[in-house]
Amino acid sequence: MSAIFKAAFIFVAPAANPSQDYSWVRTNEVHVKTIAVSNYQQACKLMDSLSEEGIKAVELCGGFGHQGVADVVKAANGRMHVGVVRFDKHPCLDFASGDALF
């Protein structure tokens, strides 16, 4: 049996608490942790614990603007791959970039 690949998807939502607002989807091959954060700083603080959990890839929602992605990549510090869903103006954030909000 091959190793299970662990990944995380992080999205921004007002008043989110990442210690409570998360869930797992587990298949035989892939486990994905979905986590809500209320700002970029919370996402960056997650990188240590995600690495310790064995997360190998992090995908950021389109609410993360260019600066938010750069902040998370820096916080990941090469321990995991970081990708992003791209919206320049996210419909769930009143058509703003997270860069304008955080």
End-to-end CA span: 43 Å
SS-based structural class? alpha/beta
Helices and strands, in order, run as EEEHEHEH
Low-confidence runs of at least 5 consecutive residues: none
What is CATH's topology name?
Rossmann fold
User: Helix fraction?
Assistant: 25-40%
- The CATH homologous superfamily is called Response regulator
Query: What is the class in the CATH system?
Result: Alpha Beta
User: Which sequence of strands runs across the widest sheet?
Assistant: 2-3-1-4-5
Give a short account of the largest sheet.
5 strands, mixed
Mean pLDDT: 91
Query: Treating each run of at least 4 consecutive H or I residues as one helix, how many helices?
Result: 3
Instruction: Tell me the β content.
Output: 25-35%
Number of self-contained structural domains: 1
Please give the CATH architecture: 3-Layer(aba) Sandwich
Walk me through what this model shows.
It is a single chain. By secondary structure, the protein is of the alpha/beta class. It has a single domain (5-96), classed as 3-Layer(aba) Sandwich (Rossmann fold), CATH 3.40.50. Helix content is 27%, strand content 28%. The protein has 3 helices and 5 strands; from the N terminus they run E-E-E-H-E-H-E-H. It has helices at residues 40-52, 66-76, 98-101; strands spanning 5-12, 22-26, 30-37, 57-60, 81-84. The chain has a 5-stranded mixed beta sheet with strand order 2-3-1-4-5. Strand 4 (57-60), helix 2 and strand 5 (81-84) form a beta-alpha-beta unit. Helix 1 packs parallel to helix 2. The longest helix is centred in the middle third of the chain and has 13 residues, at 40-52. The model has no long low-confidence stretch (mean pLDDT 91).
